[in-house]
Amino acid sequence: MSPLTPPGDRPQRADARENVRLILQAAREVFADRGYEVSIEAVARRSGVGMGTVYRHFPSKNALVERVAIDVMTETSAEIEHLSRAEPDPWTVFTRVVRYIAQARSSQLFPVSRRRTTEPGPELVAAREALLAGFADVVTRAQDAGSLRRDVTVFDLVLMLNSMPARIPEESGGNPSADLAGRQLGVFIDGLRSPGGESLPSPGADRRDLDRFFRTRFGL
């Protein structure tokens, strides 16, 4: 299924596909600028299409948010696969993947809405599982190479990445917030190098911890 085709839809005409593309692009921009609590009207205004057109393709806000989340997770999985093939050094792959995920999250596009009113659909669940599996493989290879400390789990990393501030507020006269966010991320990554300077309390986070986190925070 194309990322531009909402689940369950038949193949669309060219103008309908273009409308979906405009809506999804606008949704990403609006969600990044103002968060998930913005109205569908704001997305429609940004996209330049009418409200009826938005609802024709996405019957609810949850459906639109879920489509955006699926697309971002799918793109992230593809980027992980590309980096893994193109770069032979496991630590370099790991750091680039972490930075990519952090960037996706800094745009507030990585999780789904915190106010879901429906259960996540199977396509969203599949996209999440594929992304987690790809990231886990990157983590394992970096640990096997002796670059990444072994006392962290992939679940630790996902929880930490989702707990970091998505944005650092800008203040007049200060450094650009993007630079400060990058600095924080650099400190985070450096602390993951093997060997670690201090033993971590055990055990590390596991799948149950991750599921509980996503269920309570994002409705996943």
Automatic annotation (TrEMBL):
DNA-binding region range list: 39-58
Entry keyword Transcription: yes
Pfam families assigned: TetR_C_43, TetR_N
Keywords: DNA-binding, Transcription, Transcription regulation
GO molecular function, a single term: transcription cis-regulatory region binding
Record-annotated HTH tetR-type domain positions: 17-76
Gene3D superfamilies: Tetracycline Repressor, domain 2
Protein known as: Transcriptional regulator, TetR family
Organism (species): Actinacidiphila glaucinigra
Lineage summary: Bacteria, Bacillati, Actinomycetota, Actinomycetes, Kitasatosporales
